[in-house]
Amino acid sequence: MSEDLKVHRWHGLVDFHDSWQAMRAFNEARTHDTPDEIWILEHAPVYTRGRNAKEAPPGGSIPTVDTDRGGDLTYHGPGQLIVYTLIDLARRKIGVRHLVSALESATQDTLASFGIDDARTRPGAPGVYVGEAKIASLGLRIRGGRSYHGLALNVAMDLRPFTAIAPCGYRGLRMTQIADCGVAADTDQVAAILIPELITRLQRHPGDRLHDADIGLTARPSTGP
């Protein structure tokens, strides 16, 4: 692991609002010398709406949180691996597209290590898909050259809450997970492969253009304040 990048594993089911505020506080307090961090966790059941969200909250017993990432409405819950990337992109001299590509390709290679060889990306729709179903979603906020939020990879979870919404803004989009691909694994086992893959990619410097942006669960990057 790079000395300028730390991995922090949150234990138990983490309240989304608590982790979101912790990410914001981390970025506001960090200096040029603060090591980047990757946070690994699972959320208690929650719907989250991005800045571009059009769909209303579904109601019911699962709470909805309006957040500052890009994208639309999605669901988080136990058995879903959350990887938050608190990265100083400007210091690393990497751009938005490189971060998105790093998250997607690390996910694809992780899935391949479990024998899921048909994971693909789609132009203009960030995330990773297996066949016509989505297995991993991306939602990022990049401000002042620094990122937060990140990746949600479905491992072994209850997918039914997705049926109450148009996941990531697509009505009828089917969601899938590693367990439904015939693989028995938990979030720790998946993270043990994915995180080194991601760190390797973050240490590369392709020099793509850096700008502040919201990266949505469906949309292309858009300029943000």
> What percentage of the residues does DSSP assign to strands (E)?
25-35%
| C-alpha termini separation | 32 Å
Rounded radius of gyration (Å):
16 Å
Order of helical and strand elements: EHEEEEEHHEEEEHEE
Provide a descriptive summary of the structure in words.
The structure is a single chain. By secondary structure, the protein is an alpha+beta fold. The protein has helices at 16-29, 89-92, 96-113, 187-202; strands at 5-14, 36-43, 46-49, 64-66, 73-76, 80-86, 119-122, 125-130, 133-143, 146-154, 213-215, 222-223. The strands form two sheets. Strands 1, 2, 6, 7, 8, 9, 10, 11 and 12 form a nine-stranded mixed β-sheet that branches. A three-stranded mixed β-sheet has the order 4-3-5, with no helix packed on it. Helix 3 (96-113) crosses helix 4. The termini are far apart.
Helix/strand layout:
Blueprint: E1 5-14, H1 16-29, E2 36-43, E3 46-49, E4 64-66, E5 73-76, E6 80-86, H2 89-92, H3 96-113, E7 119-122, E8 125-130, E9 133-143, E10 146-154, H4 187-202, E11 213-215, E12 222-223
Parallel strand pairs: 1-2, 3-4
Antiparallel strand pairs: 2-6, 3-5, 6-10, 7-8, 8-9, 9-10, 9-11, 11-12
Write a concise synopsis of the structure shown.
The chain is an alpha+beta fold and 225 residues long. It is built from four helices and twelve strands; from the N terminus they run βαβββββααββββαββ. The protein has helices at residues 16-29, 89-92, 96-113, 187-202; strands spanning 5-14, 36-43, 46-49, 64-66, 73-76, 80-86, 119-122, 125-130, 133-143, 146-154, 213-215, 222-223.
